[in-house]
Amino acid sequence: MIDIFTLKENVKKGSIENCYVFCGSDEQLIKEGVYSIVNKLLDKNFMELNYVKFDGNSLDSFDPVVNACQTLPFMSDKKVVLIYRASFIQDEKGDSKLSADKSFKEVSEYIKNVPSHCVLILYDVFKGKRDKPGKRIYAMDKKVCVIKADKIKGQQLEGKVKSFFEIRGKKIERIELKVFCSLMEDNNLSVIENEVEKLCCYVDDREITKDDIKTLFLKSNDDDIFDLVNPISQKKAREALGVLNELIYKGEKIPHILNMIERQFNLLFRVKVSLENRKGKQDIMKELNIRSEYACDMLISQSKKFTIRQLRRAIELCLNTEQKIKSSSVNEKTEMELLIISAIAG
């Protein structure tokens, strides 16, 4: 098993194999590895004819993949076949229409016989930050090249982030770059690139300062609760439960999390009522004592994802959960999970 940087060095040297399996939690990093292979092998003029992609979760049969691999490339020595979201390579069963066991068995057999004119690539993204390669991936590592796309850190991360600013024609000094990278808790390059875009829009034509970075990205309890309520508004139960587990893992006490969620729903309710009464942002900030325009924008954006009825219901659920936790020996974590699921069903 190699890392993404070893892969890129191998590709630069022209050392390319017939089959690759990518895994990791950073999809952007995985895609960059895939693109390095594709761009090295294929002529851009014939890219569409020689680069075939399949969504692993939508495959009814593995036959189309085999047919694509067996078909000769057009005006090229090589072709590339990609299966993304190949959840069947993980030990836990995914959402594929094919059974994960059957899919994995077919792939395991075929990767030993990929024709020389084809490069077959599979990748799957870990669902959680602490997920690791399972037995299936280690089994494939004995047959083909497996690449683990780990989070990048230190100078590698700073170099990549600096390039994001340069692409946007923006200069960031060394100290400001270090501050920015230190505040990126999750080294997911897709997320970080979005944050770079946000910062560039925020400063506009000005130079980037440490105060700009801290204003936008210094995490507070409010930010954590926003991150929890947001997937609830989008009806993403698994993601919301994941954020809850992260908060507990970081040492936040459940009664405190509950109080902050209740406060957030109350704020959203008041913002929603104000918006329906056609009040502007400045009036809302004054009435609710919100000091930051950015925080107000976030509240307004989040409130639009709920109806007033849903927000009332969410506040009632918080109060009921608080009463249960205080008055009986219930499992606090279970009650919080029920609160989140009920608020989503709301």
Give an overview of the whole structure.
The chain has 346 residues and is α/β, with parallel strands linked by helices. The chain folds into three domains: 2-149, P-loop containing nucleotide triphosphate hydrolases (Rossmann fold, 3-Layer(aba) Sandwich); 154-217, Orthogonal Bundle (Helicase, Ruva Protein, domain 3); 221-345, Zinc Finger, Delta Prime, domain 3, CATH 1.20.272.10. It is 58% helix and 9% strand. The chain contains 17 helices and six strands. It has helices at residues 4-12, 27-41, 47-50, 63-70, 100-110, 135-141, 154-167, 174-182, 189-203, 210-217, 221-233, 237-249, 254-276, 281-288, 293-303, 308-327, 332-345; strands spanning 2-3, 19-24, 51-55, 79-84, 118-125, 145-149. It has a six-stranded parallel beta sheet with strand order 1-6-2-5-4-3, sandwiched between helices. α11 packs antiparallel against α12, α13 crosses α15 (293-303) and α13 (254-276) runs antiparallel to α16. The longest helix is centred in the C-terminal third of the chain and has 23 residues, at 254-276. It is globular, with a radius of gyration of 24 Å. The mean pLDDT is 87.
What is the fold's blueprint, element by element?
Blueprint: E1 2-3, H1 4-12, E2 19-24, H2 27-41, H3 47-50, E3 51-55, H4 63-70, E4 79-84, H5 100-110, E5 118-125, H6 135-141, E6 145-149, H7 154-167, H8 174-182, H9 189-203, H10 210-217, H11 221-233, H12 237-249, H13 254-276, H14 281-288, H15 293-303, H16 308-327, H17 332-345
Parallel strand pairs: 1-6, 2-5, 2-6, 3-4, 4-5
Helix pairs in contact: 1-2, 8-10, 11-12, 11-13, 12-17, 13-15, 13-16, 14-15, 16-17
